[in-house]
Queue: 2 jobs
Job 1
Amino acid sequence: MVGIVDEALRQGGDDALSISSYKDALVDFVKRTDTPMTIGVQGEWGSGKTSLLNQIWSDLEKCNKEDDSIDDFKQIWINSWEHSLLCSPEECLMKIINEIILELLDADTDKSRAEKISQGVNNIMKGALRIGSSLTLGAAGVDAVDDIFSESSNSIKELREQLSSLVSEIKTLETNKYGKVVIYVDDLDRIEPKDAVSILELLKNIFNIKDCVFILAIDYQVVVKGLVGKFGDPKPENEWEFRAFFDKIIQLPFSMPMSDYDIANYVLGLLDEIDFYKGEEELDPELINQFVTKSIGGNPRSIKRLINSLALIKILNDKESGDISEGVLSDKNTAMVMFAMVCLQIAHPEIYQLFADNPNFKEWNDQLAYRETQGKEEDDKNWKKNFEQAVKTDAFDEPWEQCLFRVCYLNPRRRAKATDISNFISLLDGPDFKDIDIISLIETALGQTAVTSVSSKDNPNVRPPKGSYQRFFVNGYDAWLSKTINDRGYDKKYPDFPLPESEKIVKQYIDYLKSEPYKAVDFDQEKSMDEQGSEYVIKYARGISIYYKKKKIGLINIDRTGKGESIELQASKHPKYDNAPLILKKSNIEFDHRRKIRELDEDNKEIRGAWGFVDFMEAKFNPMDVELTDEVIRFLIDESAEVRTEPEVNKELITEKKIQNYVESFKTKRKDSKEYSQARDFLKAYFDEGNKKIVDL
């Protein structure tokens, strides 16, 4: 077998996840329960709900054939998603009812009598529901929908009574062999959430039928999403409303036991089906389990995607080696690391890409983190507290783990999974790979798995040469330009990068800094900032940063997008200009806040936008439109250096902390309070687009 089809376990299929005890319990409950009864099988999409329903069906069918001590079960399978296509929830319900009726009539082996009952049901529907002369839900059915489900209508009550009578009548027939009717309603979580909830609301009115057991496969979170319009966004104080709605429908909730899945057995079985590994040593089930549970989790659908990716990689390996019959994945460690990388690729593609760019995870550090995040994680008001707590744990006590924490922090989903990701990567440095060149294995795995990678990067499948990731800062302008072109893929996308006008401006900026009176030097990674040989230091990283007395005072960079090339210029704001961005009138350079609050919602006391790096201002301009003069460079450097190093000036600088205090007052203080008014007025004025100072330069 090559690929694994993403479909539910068929009726009578093997229990690969080893949850037969749960299935047996549900089957026994269905056998013994009084009716009417509604069971809700809950689980996320792809968790195996349909497979479990199929197993229950299969066991009850076996009872029908083998167990004479109990009455047989009439089983009806309803695919709600198929019924919902191109129709309203009300029409969907009518289709479901129609199918249930037709299946019930099929229980009578006396076809002449079944025909009479069918005619009687048609008459009932015709009278009570005004659908017409058939149950095909044609135009007449659509026209009757409003009448059927209107608040004043008794149609639902009548329909339930008639369905109940139908079940009872069929049960009493001497030709009937069924004692209980089990109705499965599957794929509700594939329907638009609000429509799924509407169907549930309508279905709950007909669930109360004697001798019937309804089994619904549903994701509780779909119900929650579908009820947002009714109850608002879920919060601790209104959670009971969502649960109460669910409880009105479901008498027995059952959650898919994903934590008890035998993941290792399931995965190893699938790996064997695709003939992934041909080595003499067995793959470690426990390590397999840990790699899966700490990345993609136990969702069977995600596991199948993993296996299909590995199947393709295995085929490519075979073809490249020329040994299709045996394959090349005969080394246990190679196979395990490749398995791990694909797990990471599927669960956390951004972290996989971090590996692709920097395979030696043991050398990840703060410099690498800054390259990835630009320090944006520190804009979060809770960053410092959360980081200090994290580094006290085993998961983040090493430099590479702290780098990982920073990278994960920017994304709420990754932040929540940061500990699992750290523990996942730590497995590669654990006893299972002792005395093995794990970095080489990772590099090999990355090269093989790139074909199944999904990345937003321009060139995700091409990694830097070995060792290129080890140095974040480079030495000098030429090295910086080369690295910029290679890292960003500009050699292929923009072969004319940089434009002569851009390069002229940047070189002028650097040359002026290296002249009197600054005598700036290029940063030497082998020396501390105190040992550089000058108080002015130029660091070449993502951009070209300027430091004075170990304080960053500015930056220049060349940026290129599909819209064109631009110069990025940063400098410190200055209190003597009211901490406002500047407009350099003669030079046609207009600065703005690096980040800014865009909107104050006074009604809801909410703020949109950000305020990180608020003490810096930033200008982006077309190099064709601006001539950066030495006078402008000197002005920006001198002003910024003064702000950073003169205590009396620095204390008047508006910082992120000061902005944060105003933000907190705006959000928490009473609207009629002085603190609220001051915060609102300050934030409005400070971030006003028109609040800039003009300098005659």
Job 2
Amino acid sequence: MKTVKDYFGSLVFDDRVMKEMLSADVYAKLKKTMDEGSELDISVANAVADAMKEWAISKGATHFTHWFQPLTGITAEKHDSFIAPNPHGGVIMEFSGKELIKGEPDASSFPSGGLRATFEARGYTAWDPTSYAFIKGKTLCIPTAFCSYEGHALDKKTPLLRSMEALNRQALRILRLFGNTSAKHVRACVGPEQEYFLVTKEMYDKRPDLRFTGRTLFGARPPKGQEMDDHYFGAIKPRVAAFMEELNEELWKVGILAKTEHNEVAPAQHEIAPIYTTANIATDHNQLTMEIMQKVALKHGLVCLLHEKPFAGVNGSGKHNNWSIATDSGQNLLSPGDTPYENAQFLLFLCAVIKAVDDYQDLLRISVATAGNDHRLGANEAPPAVVSIFLGDELTAILDAIESGTPYNGTSKIEMKLGVDFLPKFHRDTTDRNRTSPFAFTGNKFEFRMLGSSNSIACANIMLNSAVAESLCQFADRLESAGNFEAELNSLIKDTIKAHKRIIFNGNGYDESWIKEATEKRGLSNYRTTPDCMPHLLDKKNVDMLIKHGVYSLAELKSRCEIMLENYCKTVIIEANTMVDMAKTQIAPAVELFTADIARGAAAKKALDASLECSYEKNVVIKLSALLDRIAAKTDELSSALVSVGNAEDIETKAYRIRDEILPLMGELRLACDEAETLTAKSYWPFPTYADLLFGVK
């Protein structure tokens, strides 16, 4: 019987395989490229490609693909076989360094936001040697970046890698100031917690809204939801347990460090979380995780729902992005440490994050903006759309003491003069966790909780890495020119705390009073929807910062703004059209049939005995007839609004009109249909109910 140790990473061309199959010289040169970003010689690429091919074929692979992440939010792949014609007949198996390094997929059919015209088809994929190749099915998947013929990034990996390098450069400047000359690289590290729902395939197939949009557009609340808190961390049902067991096996085979699994708050909701790895690999792994989850679920007669809000009235699904930064030697720069030196360094990096989140709260909000996530943020189940930082009582008290220059009344009463006097020790886990905070410190990392479950984690980490890099750059500029490092460090931290303490909030983020305080007193932004926040991507301060650090060009930023707004519009329009279709062809006919049957039943009773009141039948017929009229009217209104919105002069205007016209009408149509569901006999209702979906998996 094979154990996990036997098959973990068996489908990954990882360091173990490379050491075994490459010569010492080739391996050393490849590792230098992976660790330091040095240019890869074609001879090394050829040697790696040959070894990769032989290894893949030994695992049953027949094809290879450049696996990339276009701006669709999912992954893309084009398969090519290893076969080449043999001059003597038959075939040989070939794979060159050139094929490994570069591919040329069609770039015209992917979202580009105007960077590419339809007739400008050429695009390039470039091997990312920092992320291991893996086998999926019978295909060798090579993680790659994706760019246009002119060199514009058409994917999410390229800007992510750029942001990681920007953070690396600026963090190293800070470490050198603290006397650290051994660190060669600083990496952003991430562990994303993936939430999801499971429903039966049989029921899913009967719901057009789930099939077309990923969420239920109609559905009356069931008698029981999550009120009893009996699902969270509860015993896992046998069918779900079998799914989780196979999911773990498949993830472990491709080297994904799946660690934690449990039931989430809502019925039919679950979570899986991995161990930390670099932001780039974590992004690749999360995209692969979502794909594998859906495939494995189907094998068990289930469907994995990754939408942020598949069901109204119960908790939606997020993807908490646990983020930290560490040196190549493994030192976590957000861990407080035990010595004055470490504490001073930690506090500076902490202040850099605080400043970054305050200065670029709009970019963080933009990074999680989707039509799906708009339903979740601020719904008393997820962080509000207002960005704030939770630090806990101890860290907040320490920062207050530093700002005021007063003794810290914690483990020791000592005036906080950084780098001079002994700093009080404080431990990683001295504070409670705040589940309502969008950005919470959790001992040695920050948990960015605003991401939606279907989001690529690339976007959030791009903005977070870039914003922190900018803070560190400003800090390094000031400290490098200082005559007295310790005095300037002390002054810098005090100044930063004073300027940015408005972003720190340790209370209940769900409370409406906090939203009022945040916006009216503290001046924090509150961009409730995607159309509210997305145009701010092109604000001058954001454009200047992202261009300065080489993360995006101006053309790339304009394209992203266009693509995200277009995606928002397309998503909602598909939902609205689905609602119209379901209301017209399923709900209204079902309600009409039931109403007519009830009316005929009442007439038959009256014919038998004219003195019978038939009050039940009368009330049902009256109520459902009125609801049918409302359903018909709202369906027509929604249909007309969709035609009108389609004539909007530009994408920004279209997005605003969808937010202000389409979504309210969708809400009104849903209310009428959901009320009709509560009055219509279940046998007449045309698709599975919430009770069926949420409690159908045994």
